Write the structure tokens for this entry.
Amino acid sequence: MEIKLKNLTKVFPGNPKKHIRDTVAVNNLNIDIPDGQLVGLLGPSGCGKSTTLYMLSGLQLPTSGEVWFGDEEVTNLSPEKRGIGLVFQNYALYPHMTIYKNVEFPLTNLKVEVPLVCFYDYVITYTYKMEKDDNVEGIKRSIITLLSKVGFDKKQYKLTIEDKDGILNIIINLYSVNEKNYDLFDKNFGRIIKVASKDAKKTQASDALYDVTIRGTYGENVADEVGETKALKAKLHDFKKNLSEVKVYNDLKGVTNYLVIINKVTDKEIDAIKAQLTSLNLKVVTFKKDVAVTYRKLNKVERSDIVHDVARLVQIEEYLERKPSQLSGGQQQRVAIARALVKKPKVLLLDEPLSNLDARLRLQTREEIRRIQHNTGITTVFVTHDQEEAMSICDLIVVMKNGIQQQIDAPQKVYNDPKNLFVAQFLGNPPINVFNGKIKGKGVFIGDECIYKTKKDIKDQDVYVAIRPEGFTLNKDKDTKNTLTGDAEMIQVLGRDLSIIVNNPECLKPNFKVIITNESDAIKGKVSLVVKPNKLFVFDKTTEERIYLD
Amino acid sequence: MLNIFKKRTTSKKYASELTFESARYGELKVGHNDKANVDVEVVSRHKVDPEYRVGGVLDQEQRNNWKAWLYLAPVLILMAVFLIYPLIDTIIIAFMRNYNYVKGTFDGFTFDNFGAILGLTTINGATETRVVQYALPNTFILVFITVPVSIAIALIISVLLNSIKFLQKIFQVVFFLPYVTNTIAIGMVFSVIFDSNGLINYIFNLGDFKWIYGASRAVAMIPLCLYIVWSALPFKILILLSGLQGIDKQYYDAAKIDSTPKWKVLTKITIPALSPQILYLMVTSFIGAFKEYASIVGLFGQAGTTQGSYELYTIVYYIYDNLNTNTSFAAAAAVLLFCIILVFTFFQLRVSKKRVYY
């Protein structure tokens, strides 16, 4: 499901009496999340990312703006109607229920649609020759399991087995069942028991029911819309109990139209309605007929199947009988995800899913989340303050600050091509080095040293120059122009890499970090560094927006 | 050379101190030889004096021991004088034949007192039937009606109170007020309300229906139960409300997302989460209800609906009534009540192990 946020704003009202100002948690957020993607909301604490997630879930309502799930606006829809799964930061597993019960809980409330097509009664008689290892109880049990797996309720079937000297007469009565379900049952019945003969009788139990919407023009033009609506209602009183809406209204052109919505009617009744309308001299313009639906709850076997499927997906099958307190943090996390997934939500929302885990488990679990998301293909939004987490598993990162979205891009793009100074500083470890610099005559200067020459015409100004730690190489050739010099204060060996701490007066911090491969031979003292152009970013001094050099 | 130091202690704190110290000294083995004692063994390469360090901890504990007893002394003395001595004395008196509490004389020990109050043995040509006929059944009726009803009502009220924001504090105070009001005073107000010329008869247009004086035993139970339930509510609401406020809101958010109906949230989430508080209330109010006495005095002023009748006897009422005349019978009834409560509480705690989630 595609998610769209349009001008989403959330303001937590303050208290003017106590001089508490309004807090703008989310400010005019516009995000398009493509279907089936894993999106990370990234930002420091207090940037509004969790609030955004809760507005997506419906637990908090936005002050203004819209939330769209696909083609449907859900801005003011309550959470249960949105078809979402939400994983809480501290998991919120019910402590008194077993893992199985926890995962099953959402299913006990779930209602599935049952189309009201033609229903039939069946009487099926199978004969079956008992073999050596068979016993009647076992056969009975497997048939009942099959019946409930197909989705038949206990009231919908009756099973009798007569044993006549090793030849079983299995008589199954099915009441008011869907033809499709019967076919499914019949097909699978052959798989579990090889019957000698079969005899099925089918009688229609009920007609198919339809929801009908009729629109048309009224015979004459009327002035009194309300009165005429009442009159039409009275004329259609034969269908009173199925009538859900009747309306007579004038459109902009002054033509009188009418609208009739009737629920759960048979074909015969539809004909009668049509005849009635014709006799009233009403012209039918559009006629829409849909199969009516009713809702039922999932039965125990269906629920168990779904729970086990999801448990297998998140690999918690072996813990199903335990209580949440008997599981480790990572396992609880997966249970929470299972509980969110079990309803097959259109959107999965995760609120800081990894913040309660230790470092090693965090690595493992984030890959797990990626795998689960990949296998299910559910559009997933997750909130994190950890840049590494977001970079490693997301398809798309939304960087936020103070309720304002800073950049939306693929992880690599956000790192390699930051839109402003905040994004550049927030991503990357060790953090990016920022210098006071200036642009003068198409050259980028730090202090008096020109580190880069651009071809583009950029007006001379003071700027921030930001260079990633890995964006330097040691200058071996003394003649090379465009270098940055500094005083190497300390050299740290990080195994694969060397880290050099360099002093430079123009740096915002007392010193800056350079990371180079350990093959280079760095010594303390004066160093001369060449800057890689693709690791160099220049930002406006006042707006902190990026100034593109090429 | 290895220094080995062994010590047996009952103190877990001591053992943990040793664990801490052992990081400096060397190896430490802590073994539990039984439930109370901890065997501690320190093996060290260094020349150390474990007696000094470790013994220091022990000395400290021993030195503080008498202080602890001193601080506890007032409570212990009071408990010994007013609780433990009377308890033992009551049990002894319950077995004394012809005990005279003024003179302190008795003719040996016997089980007859229990037989007598249960109507099994005849004393002085008369049979005591009031305990079996009135006191025991009444007590059980009151216990099994008022406790579940008051807990259920308290639960409903506290859940409702918890769900409103507006005026919550005021309602909390209103519901708590009966707790600080005198039992006898409330009882008198109830007896006015249920008087044959009272408010209830007036509102429901019942003429001069007799609820209290001159009422049958079954009818008299109604105002009595109502009164007990009403006066038991405030404390229960207080406990349940504080329990409710401790439940993590996220459980409700999670339930909301799963479109859980309200009654199911109550039965599947709220009540299990409140189960420790409910258990506490069950145990304490069952014990309290077994000891019901003041409410009957407050409402009826006597043991029955008419002068000289005993149809509203409870066990404790019987005990108080016979304290001066038949001290041994009263003591036997007290021991009987003690046993009933003991068995009952034990049974509740057993059941709760499966039903209560901490």
